[in-house]
Specification:
By secondary structure, the chain is an alpha+beta fold. Helices cover about 45% and strands about 15% of the residues. It holds the Pfam family HTH_animal.
């Protein structure tokens, strides 16, 4: 696709959505900075007093205590120093240069009618034509039939303080063929937000507890369960590994059926009352969350008539209760044809629920690649083909400990997922290249690698792995 951006602008965008521009407030007017200081001061003091009033195991400090005044003065002094201190000239120059860079990118986006946004799952920035977004969004609404257009703005029918209609936007999925869009509903000030959050906090812990034995918390949990599965003799050379997920789970969730399943779920698990509410009351609250969901998209109004809003807290919990879990992993010792028959039967079980599955001796699930090597389990870190080697840029204005944590997290995952020393060493090299690409200094990477391995070797809570060193070149 043609784009109007220069090489330097593309390089700046390649830093990714997690990049924080250094000193963004350096050019703000003094009055703006003072308002920010006042807001942060007031928010902090409010939280402090609330926290101190809820303490039960220590003596409470009266709200009239001079300690609060002393702390307030010191807090304001620290905030003023942080925001008002003049930064060095070299930092001012860099801040100005990056501000101009952002302004030039915004102008080109507007002039050429382009959309810049974060992608689905891969977490990188994507540039697309506005006309393509509008076309794909219209195709999505037409294909799913999940939204009906409204003839007027229903906002005035909603009575609530500081309420806004949910706003629908779309993010691209470059890891899927044709780069389809995923609809997201911004429900921050939606009228049903607090009801949705309340239901999620009430019902999700119940669901998590009841399915704990058959749900994977993460990749490490998956591998631990597989090891126990192997010890029971269920894993041999002919064992197939299978994964499947649900297409458009949020959008295609049938509303009335899912509410009926919610009631059945609570009754089966003897939850006649949850947080003092009866099952009928919970179902009616869930109905409000699903059906009172008018949204704005562009300059038109829609109401979702199938499924729930992706962006509403309770939607995922309700979807999981309806179909159990949208991502499934299992092994099978029957033939591939038998497995396909089973999955095709499941695919025809409900007109709204469609599966996409993978069957073989090697399949990815979550962020793990699971392999059956002639009856021996092998695993490694899985990188999606569309994934970009992007992490928090070292040029970003994040706190320094963030960069250390990013490196240690990547290495920890590699250690836990790698089934052999060779697999780990390959992943370690890939990790190093990834951080070099994101402008991490080589010496800093080496230092963090050494610290990680030193801490790792002294820990008794993790399995042993030999110390990794840079391989020496072979002599001819």
């Amino acid at each position: 696709m043609y784009h109007p951006f220069t090489a330097s602008q593309l390089a700046y965008l390649s830093r990714g959505p997690t990049y924080i521009r250094p000193n963004p407030s350096v050019f703000f007017p003094e009055a703006t900075l003072q308002k920010r200081i006042d807001r942060e001061h007031d928010d902090t003091m409010k939280k402090l007093k609330k926290c101190m009033s809820e303490i039960t195991d220590l003596p409470k400090i009266p709200l009239t205590s001079p300690l609060y005044k002393s702390y307030s003065d010191r807090l304001r002094s620290c905030l003023t120093q942080s925001y008002m201190t003049i930064i060095p000239l070299i930092d001012q120059i860099r801040a100005l240069r990056e501000l101009k860079m952002i302004q030039s990118i915004r102008k080109k986006l507007k002039r050429h009618k382009l959309i810049l946004g974060e992608t689905d799952k891969s977490g990188v920035l994507h540039i697309g034509r506005q006309i393509d977004y509008e076309r794909k969004a219209a195709e999505y609404r037409q294909t799913t039939g999940a939204y009906e257009e409204l003839t007027s703005n229903p906002f005035n029918d909603i009575i609530c303080q500081k309420t806004e209609l949910a706003y629908m936007y779309f993010i691209p999925k470059p890891h899927k063929k044709g780069t389809p869009l995923r609809p997201i509903l911004n429900t921050i000030h939606a009228a049903t937000k607090q009801i949705s959050q309340f239901l999620d906090k009430s019902i999700r812990p119940l669901f998590d507890r009841f399915v704990r034995q058959t749900a994977f918390a993460d990749g490490v949990d998956l591998l631990d369960r597989l090891q126990k599965h192997i010890q029971k003799g269920y894993f041999n050379a002919s064992t197939l590994v299978i994964t499947f997920d649900i297409t458009n789970i949020y959008t295609m969730l049938p509303q009335e059926e899912s509410l009926a399943i919610l009631a059945e779920f609570l009754r089966v698990h003897n939850c006649e009352r949850v947080n003092g509410l009866s099952i009928d009351t919970i179902v009616e609250l869930a109905r409000v969350v699903l059906q009172a969901n008018a949204v704005v998209c562009g300059n038109k109004f829609y109401r979702q008539i199938i499924g729930g809003a992706m962006g509403s807290a309770f939607t995922l919990t309700l979807a999981n209760i309806f179909i159990y879990i949208d991502d499934v992993f299992f092994t099978c010792n029957q033939s591939e044809n038998k497995v396909k028959e089973l999955l095709e039967a499941a695919n025809n079980f409900h007109p709204n629920i469609k599966l996409e599955y993978k069957i073989g001796k090697s399949v990815p699930f979550l962020d793990v690649l699971v392999k059956n090597n002639n009856g021996i389990l092998a695993s490694s870190v899985y990188h999606k083909p569309s994934a970009q080697p992007t992490v928090v840029s070292f040029l970003s204005d994040h706190p320094r400990h963030v960069f250390q944590n990013v490196i240690h997290t990547a290495l920890t995952r590699a250690v836990r997922y790698s089934s052999s020393f060779e697999v780990f060493n390959n992943e370690r090299r890939a990790i190093r290249l990834m951080f070099l690409y994101n402008r991490y200094p080589s010496n800093y990477i080496n230092q963090q690698f050494q610290k990680f391995f030193a801490d790792y070797m002294s820990s008794s809570s993790l399995p042993f792995i030999p110390m990794i060193t840079n391989p020496k070149p072979k002599r001819n």
